[in-house]
Amino acid sequence: MKGSNITTIPGARRPRVVVVGAGFGGLAVAKGLARAPVDVLVVDRRNYHLFQPLLYQVATAGLSPADIAWPIRSILRTQRNASVQMGRVTGIDTQRGEVLIGDRRLSYDYLVLATGARHAYFGHEDWETVAPGLKKIDDATLVRQRLLMAFERAESDCDPEERRRLLNFVVVGGGPTGVEMAGAIAELARGALASDFRSIDPKDARIMLIEAGPRLLPAFAESLSGIAKRSLERLGVDVLLGRAVTECTCAGVALGEERIAARTIIWAAGVMASPAAKWLGVESDRAGRVKVQGDFTVPGHANVFVIGDTAAAMDQNGRPLPGVAPVAKQAGRYVAQVIDARVRGRSGPKPFRYQDFGNLATIGRKSAVVEIGTVKMSGFAAWLLWSVAHVYFLIGLRNRVIVALNWTWNYITFQRGARLITGRESDELPMAPEQDEIRRVS
Amino acid sequence: MKGSNITTIPGARRPRVVVVGAGFGGLAVAKGLARAPVDVLVVDRRNYHLFQPLLYQVATAGLSPADIAWPIRSILRTQRNASVQMGRVTGIDTQRGEVLIGDRRLSYDYLVLATGARHAYFGHEDWETVAPGLKKIDDATLVRQRLLMAFERAESDCDPEERRRLLNFVVVGGGPTGVEMAGAIAELARGALASDFRSIDPKDARIMLIEAGPRLLPAFAESLSGIAKRSLERLGVDVLLGRAVTECTCAGVALGEERIAARTIIWAAGVMASPAAKWLGVESDRAGRVKVQGDFTVPGHANVFVIGDTAAAMDQNGRPLPGVAPVAKQAGRYVAQVIDARVRGRSGPKPFRYQDFGNLATIGRKSAVVEIGTVKMSGFAAWLLWSVAHVYFLIGLRNRVIVALNWTWNYITFQRGARLITGRESDELPMAPEQDEIRRVS
């Protein structure tokens, strides 16, 4: 198998490690190889690393995109064995050991795929136009546009029925993203927007969080799910549990027989791995993830690793690893050790052990739920911990200072600093035909 | 003439002033009417007021869009007689006194058009796709995308000829925007990007500023034009004076016989007023501006005012008023006084006098030219004055703090905080056919 037994020979070309994706996992690999006798090439279709956990704050106008993103080149600037290329991977030639980026071909000795996941509609991909998800910067600015435009449209519409639809917001999916989005929309409507309109009262906005399972935040302890639900309800969010969305249209959602009229629907209900399995021509699970071995190699491809949300891996106890940032980071560091050992002809590291630091989710401006081992926290103290942890994990001093400052400002003034409706009009909320009727407002 | 002699009768409907455009002029009108017995309705196609003088810093990745924009609703939140509607004006019915926004109609007693200007190509509108201008947030993020993508493309291209084209940047127009853009691109290449690439050296970038007239900054004193030119040249910008661009394509620009290969062209050479004259069916000058009377009313329409970059007005000495923010602000305040007086049945204010506070333009990170009356300044002191003035004129404490912080950070570290390539791929640099050939980089 090509590349699996490469060792460095003085004067010979150094093995090349191509890392696809500069998320938490990919960056951890690249940085972990800083002292390894290899050349690292990081490929990403974006020029920045994105701190996805705070994407919902861009979507709800609390932060600017640049506050939670950092150029990949800057992160790896001082790492002399690393280079970066921007490009969208279109395939992989495992025979020749090449990554295909359109017509460009990048040869590799070791390949690490850390290409993450996208929101998915599992057979209802047509719902995406009416119910956008939240995985990329462009998703977040689109959702921000839809949210803010709904209030703008309601302000200038004279039909009470349509106003109600415009002020109904549905979030589908009760995981951390859904919980955080629903809380943030409620606070946007009741806080920052509260006094800005004349014809409507943004406080009339109705925010619904719909979860098909029996409780919110299924990855958390059950007691915290209850606390999260009550916290959201205090913010004025209607939490609907055990209800599956059977249809999404530009007029609202259907839950079986019941229909909820809403102009704005946000999808936080499911993810699908990037097409890494397809590129490799290997087996994947239902969510499109590549089944990997204990050292994150792909069966039959000893020099190809898959980590993060793209991998279906098991922890030391045989339980599937969750699709969260710490898993990707730890796997990335581990894979760097494996490659380093192989290149140097040494024995590899001990088997991978996932160290679970716990779960955090925030609900609005002063509440959060935190679970660290057996410790469970909620309320203001948990929110402070959540805030500090998120600022700490941001890359770069500037981003930390700017985000901390924005949050302090938002907290004190209830205002949001990034309430911009940008993008083209074609991205705006699709309107039903009756929307185009003549409406006189004066 | 409808609305020209309206006075308030107790119990009667208050006159309605519709202000189209929430730039410097429009906002000044709305705020100036805070205590007038009228209802003010501000209409804008965006939900934010934009601080246009700093747009070039968004285009060169120094600031985020939200740092220089502020929701119009928030600005007018506490002004009880003001409301805001988002909408794109499509026409004006002066007979019925109505502003048309698609099918919506907004009736007015007084109308103020402050809709600004757009960059224009004067008969070469097809140049826009290859040479974008800089008037809106979306323009700035598009230019930022093109600038950063040029370096990304150069890094992964193996053809030295194409690399050179990609690292050639042409700015057309030697007014303040062109001068500031050229300086900022030079510093981006020699500062923030300098160590981030491996195959190219961003310092090899060649930045050309092309001006058809005999000197840069024609609105400034001639001595300052010379200083600006030398400052730019010290930053490594090639300044070409007295050279008119006769052609723009995706491969570069032509200056008569001479051709300059460049993948990135930025247009700062001319503006065209918004179509206010067309909406009103009245006379306009060559730049599309409505010829107004001394009190900014449109001849034949005593209740319709045009101000700012959309108006062709004269100062007290019969000289045309320049298209700058202070003119728009002062005219806005004046028109508010005129309307207030008319509504109350009092005599109007004294004739308008433009108070010229001077001109400022910055050239890179520690140089600027400033002209205040007979005082001329340049260098670091002028740059400090420029920075303080711009922070001061920003709306909102948050924006002032964030911009000041960003500038301090940029100044100390030479880094840029907003180096994101966003937007769709279809917006990217149009590529010549030969660009699609197979290029191997490994």
User: Tally of extended strands of chain A?
Assistant: 25
User: What is the CATH topology classification name of the largest domain in chain A?
Assistant: FAD/NAD(P)-binding domain
Strand order of the largest sheet of chain A: 5-2-1-9-21-20
Largest interface: A-B, 62 and 63 residues
User: What is the gyration radius of chain A calculated from CA atoms?
Assistant: 23 Å
Assembly annotation: homodimer
Label the CATH architecture of the largest domain in chain A.
3-Layer(bba) Sandwich
Residues in helices of chain A, as a percent range: 25-40%
The major sheet of chain A is characterized as: 6 strands, mixed
Low-confidence stretches of chain A: 1-8, 428-442
Name of the top-level CATH class of the largest domain in chain A: Alpha Beta
**Tally of discrete structural domains of chain A:** 2
Strand content of chain A: 15-25%
Structural class of chain A: alpha/beta
How would you sum up the global shape of chain A?
A: elongated
Task: Let me know the average pLDDT of chain A.
Answer: 89
How far apart the termini of chain A lie comes to 75 Å
User: Number of DSSP helices of chain A?
Assistant: 11
Overview of the molecule:
Two copies of one chain form a homodimer. The first copy, chain A, has 442 residues and is an alpha/beta fold. Chain A has two domains: 16-45 and 87-119 and 271-344, FAD/NAD(P)-binding domain (3-Layer(bba) Sandwich), CATH 3.50.50; 125-269 and 358-429, FAD/NAD(P)-binding domain (3-Layer(bba) Sandwich), CATH 3.50.50.100. Chain A contains eleven helices and 25 strands. In chain A, the strands form eight sheets. The first copy, chain A, has a six-stranded mixed beta sheet with strand order 5-2-1-9-21-20, covered by helices on one side. Chain A is elongated. Chain A starts with 15 loop residues before the first strand and ends in a 29-residue tail after the last helix. Chains A and B meet through strand 5, strand 8, helix 4 and helix 11 of A and strand 5, strand 8, helix 4 and helix 11 of B.
